[in-house]
Design brief:
The protein is of the alpha/beta class and about 90 residues long. It has one domain (about 1-90): 3-Layer(aba) Sandwich (Trna Endonuclease, Chain: A, domain 1). Helices cover about 30% and strands about 25% of the residues. It has a five-stranded mixed β-sheet. About 10% of the residues are buried.
Length: about 90
């Protein structure tokens, strides 16, 4: 229900999009998937700012890193995302 409300409240005027939204425990986590390690994260940054979400994920070829509220996760760690997000919240690194 929270996820549905959040999606309904997204401004329709932006031409940005989030690839996925997942729930990890009670937290909503937006995700963008990029084919290369580099790329604009405009939609993810807008979503994080407007929805006041403390963490977003970028899945790509890049190395595992946390920078400006965005956790970069390499493709080979995708199945570990719930654990990685829980650890970040638990250790208060975000």
């Amino acid at each position: 229900m929270i996820l549905e409300n959040m999606l309904k409240e997204l401004p329709m005027c932006i031409s940005a999009e989030i690839d996925y939204l997942i729930a990890v425990g009670s937290k909503i986590v937006p995700i963008e998937v990029k084919a290369k390690a580099i790329g604009s994260l405009r939609s993810l940054k807008i979503f994080i700012k407007e929805k006041k979400i403390p963490l977003g994920l970028k899945i790509s070829e890049s190395t595992y890193a946390l920078h400006n509220q965005i956790l970069s996760v390499p493709f080979y760690l995708v199945e570990e995302i719930p654990r990685l997000v829980e650890e970040l919240y638990y250790t208060s690194k975000i």
